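Model: Ready when you are.
Researcher: Fold this.
Model:
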Amino acid sequence: MKRVLVLLAFISLSFASQAQETTYTFTNAVNLVNPTWIKLGTLSLPQHGHMANIRLYGGQGYNAWLNQQADIELQIKTGNTASTGPVGHGFAAYASRYGGTANFLPKIRIVPNEVGANPTVFVVYLFVQPYIGGGYYTVSKDGSTTWTNAMEVAAEPTTGIYEVPFFFRTQNDTYLAGDNFFISNTTGNVGIGTISPQEKLAVNGTILARKLKITTTGWPDYVFAPGYELPSVMELEEYIKANKHLPEVPSAKEVETNGQDIGEINKQLLKKLEELTLYIIELKKENISQQASIKALETKLTSLEK
């Protein structure tokens, strides 16, 4: 264990001693009125375990780029061995906030020069909020790595992109912005694809699951209990004519406005199915009674004809 720790310490010191840090200043050339994409620059990073760190700073002194006293650190590291898959390069990014209350959620995308192979060139794009004035960022890298500053407004990159996930907290709320994953410390609500969950779990998208279990109470077995008052068919018809939906079942407008409670709607659908079963049983009994009456009339008619 001591040998491992010594080796790790040596590697860290070695990287620190070889690292070169350069500072770049944001100028008024990219003043933004609306949120937009910025091409930050291009990183040439050899394969086999090379690494670079890009740190972006914003604060009140820089007219609040990144929305007040914040910084984002992006780390890009290449793989140690040749690869035939997407593991030939590794990206990690995280953000930290120091003071301020305004949320910042810039997206970070990287476009490598190779997809699923061993890229050595990485173009870095940022999605930033409106700002005026300056700011700055630093690039820390070893001697075999080069960085070309761009800092220009660009079209949204959509082809061959890597969406960098990053983690940060603001007022104890937790964001994984690259994956749009949010946890509210205040409410305990979790959002996937949304940063404003109004329920314990809010998903802005499709959920794929092998099984879904919902606990509920008031399951409508009482429909089959003695004394249950089943509405007459005529009463049901009048309700449907007036409301255009079944009793106790939400209307289309209600569902469009408020969504639907799966547990509750299942209860109501089962209740209607059980009531329908009782209607069918009553109808069958009436049918049997009518058949018996018809049979009796046929017998009487036959005897009269004789």
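Researcher: Now this one.
Model:
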Amino acid sequence: MRCFKKSAKCFVLSVIATIVFIGTSANAEGQIPRPEHPKTQFRREAWLNLNGRWDFAMDPDVVGVKESWQSNPSKLNKKIVVPFCVESKLSGMGQTDFINAVWYRRTFTLPKTWEAKRVFLHFGGVDYECRAWVNGKAVGRHFGGSVSFAFEITDAIRKGENDLVVYAFDDVRSEVQPSGKQSTRRESYGVHYTRVTGIWQTVWLEVRPQQFLKSVHIVPDLDEKRFIVTPTVNEYKRGLQFRATLLTPKGKKLTSESVPAQSGNTAVLKIKKPRAWSTVDPYLYDLRLELLDGRKVVDSVASYAGLRKFHIEGNKLYLNNKPIFVRFVLDQGFYPDGIWTAP
């Protein structure tokens, strides 16, 4: 019995040690946190994840822009792990006091295959105001802490190493800026919790051609056994075609349709033997979305979609034309170590 207790104790300690190791190794030097593509429903193959350790500085007096910190790397003398906010433990900072302004810096080198193409700098989320400079040149400014955005940086990049500086301003006590459930006190209270300042989602680079797909709207139509796919192109030129292809998760082609890539045109993908998405069988189709100039594919995006239908009749909710009982549960979406960002 004593041996069993000793073995059990050793096993528990071993498990705890393993958990601690996994948690700390995720931010180890050379590893990229959150390495997965951040936009799985609109995924291009050519992209570069910029998560990891960045140079960092807090700007408590909000003087950095006036003093041109974007041109003075020595001001950023701390380190932070992106994409975790400065208040989180996973960022390596864990600074939960009021922070109105922060600065980030890192370098990157583009793949040679990206030459002569358009390059975009993406942010999954920066709270609240964001400015960015590449090689000292201002490339964009954005307001809004919970919306993804991108700046084109093609004219600012150079061969070899490039310098990227990001500034974020966030004043939750201003009574002007939306703050959601972020606490305006030093401590959490009621339904208001730890603040989120600066970068809190993945930062990445993406290459695009001259004409590209800006977005694609996919509508499932269960009754008609089809998907309706509507593209938006950045710049239409005569002869451009949009092609949507529906595939199984294993890559088997089911159907495809091409239409002129003009605004308002739709591709209709009809399915002979449809498999509906449901809570019991959450089946997802893969989609390949392409922009063609003649026979040449100039842009390609991967996506996915489920064929399902929700509607209400009387006091009942229906899924795929069958009544379904729903028990609602509140998920706050706050993580102990990452706050808004999942580990």
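Researcher: Key takeaway?
Model: The chain has three domains: 1-29, 32-208, 213-308.
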